[in-house]
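[[Per-residue structure]]
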Amino acid sequence: MDADAEDAVQDVLIELWSSAERFNPEAGSEVTFVSTITRRRMIDRLRKKKRTPGISTIDDAPEAALAQQGESLNEHAEVGNVAETLSEMDMQQQQILQLSIYEGYSHSEIAEQLNMPLGTVKTKVRRGLIHIREQLEIENPEATS
């Protein structure tokens, strides 16, 4: 087994161990519980792998790539502004938005993880995104169409 697969198995086992108290036999079988956790960990690993940039030097990059790096610096600054706005919100709002935006969980997965009603999660995500948009003065694309 290669190192990446071993790490994946270890991640799943750690998550199973730390989530064991959440297992409810009335909600589903052991296989379903293990499969759900495994699926989530594998999705997390794939997303993390996609976000890991390749290593290159500026000297090796053609001019188009340098322009793209400049754009990514601007995007990085915008992400920093969003992160700062997010840090000013209450802890529950931050947690919900981080699970949704950064970790890519669906609203129903967040509701399950945080033991909250689905409607509450949806409302908090929407209000949080509206707050971020207002703080950053981003035009609402739905309002212009």
In short: Residues 1-53 form one domain. The chain has two domains: 1-53, 78-140. The longest helix spans residues 63-87. The helical segments are 3-19, 30-51, 63-87, 91-102, 107-114, 118-136, 141-144.
